[in-house]
UniProtKB/TrEMBL annotation:
One of its GO terms (molecular function) is dipeptide transmembrane transporter activity. The lineage of its organism: Bacteria, Pseudomonadati, Pseudomonadota, Gammaproteobacteria, Oceanospirillales. This is ABC-type transporter, integral membrane subunit. Keywords: Cell membrane, Membrane, Transmembrane, Transmembrane helix, Transport. Belongs to the binding-protein-dependent transport system permease family. OppBC subfamily.
């Protein structure tokens, strides 16, 4: 518990540092939000009045403190271009990005862990060669290109899936899941390729440990030794890589959501950047950073469950 509490304090301090860096970078981004809202032909006094209304003329630290206080209250401010609450925008887009990311992570695990374990169980076998080929192709091909191939092959040619768009969860669970199927596959394949290699290497390394040979000497069958002793002890590097992949999935969602015209967080961030909507950008980036750091915190806490030796040391 003491270690988890220390990690939680470190997480909060890191979030504060990240928030300051994000706010500082947004200050360096060219473009005047008042000119974006009113247009380049607006009168100078009108621009100045709008800057005062938005608080843009206040000192840097004052505006940063106001932003932090608003975050603690749940008030993320109002979008310059959408003229609505940023919290409402993020909440609406999160209903697309969160299921997409979770579904992609689930597919990545379901593909990579069995494939990596079976490949390591019989090195240089048929499954191992297929896993190696799958890993090389999955790592080499970017996710947005996989998305385009899926659209051409399964959506346009066979008409099995929609080309793009999202009907909304109010249209029903299965129509919404059907619209997220191809984007989640496009996100999952590159991550599954990396995780397959990590799983294979971890299982082969544990296979050569002394306790595995002892279990086999006591009469454990190869299948029992594999799933009872080897795989559970190989989960730590797998979980570590899976936690690192969440940030890659979130970054990949920006491209994939634009390829499939999904109204998610990635599309919101891209549109806000194009429109210089700084308040939306800084809140979206901080939200992404908070998700990644929180998942890394949970993965670090999960180590103590997977490896009892860490509990003894800590």
């Amino acid at each position: 518990m003491r270690y988890i509490a220390q990690s939680l304090v470190g997480l909060i301090i890191t979030l504060l540092v990240v928030s300051f860096v994000i706010f500082l970078i947004m200050e360096a981004v060219p473009g005047d939000p008042a000119e974006i809202i009113l247009g380049m032909s607006a009168a100078p006094d009108t621009l100045e009045a709008l800057r005062n209304q938005l608080g843009l003329n206040q000192p840097f630290l004052v505006r940063y403190a106001d932003w932090l206080i608003g975050l603690l209250r749940g008030d993320l401010g109002d979008s310059y271009t959408y003229s609505t609450s940023v919290a409402q925008l993020i909440g609406e887009r999160l209903t697309v990005t969160l299921p997409l990311t979770c579904l992609a992570a689930l597919l990545s695990v379901l593909i990579s862990v069995p494939l990596g374990v079976l490949a390591a169980a019989r090195p240089n076998g048929v499954v191992d060669m297929f896993a190696s080929l799958f890993s090389q192709i999955g790592i080499a091909v970017p996710n947005f290109w996989i998305g385009l191939l899926l659209i051409l092959g399964l959506a346009l040619t066979f008409d099995w899936f929609p080309v793009g768009g999202f009907p909304g969860w109010e249209a029903g669970f299965w129509p919404a899941l059907h619209a997220l199927a191809l984007p989640s596959v496009a996100l999952a394949i590159p991550q599954a390729a990396v995780l397959t290699r990590v799983t294979r290497a971890a299982v082969i390394e544990i296979t050569n440990e002394d306790f595995v040979r002892t279990a086999r000497a006591k009469g454990a069958t190869p299948s029992h030794a594999l799933w009872r002793h080897i795989v559970p002890n190989a989960m730590i590097p797998i979980v570590t890589m899976l936690g690192m992949q969440i940030s890659v999935l979130i970054a990949g969602a920006v491209l994939v959501e634009n390829v499939f015209a999904l109204p998610g967080m990635g599309t919101l961030a891209y549109q806000a950047l194009a429109q210089r909507d700084l308040i939306v950008i800084q809140n979206v980036v901080l939200f992404f950073a908070a998700i990644v750091m929180s998942i890394n915190f949970l993965v670090d806490a999960l180590y103590t469950v997977l490896d009892p030796r860490l509990r003894v040391r800590r």
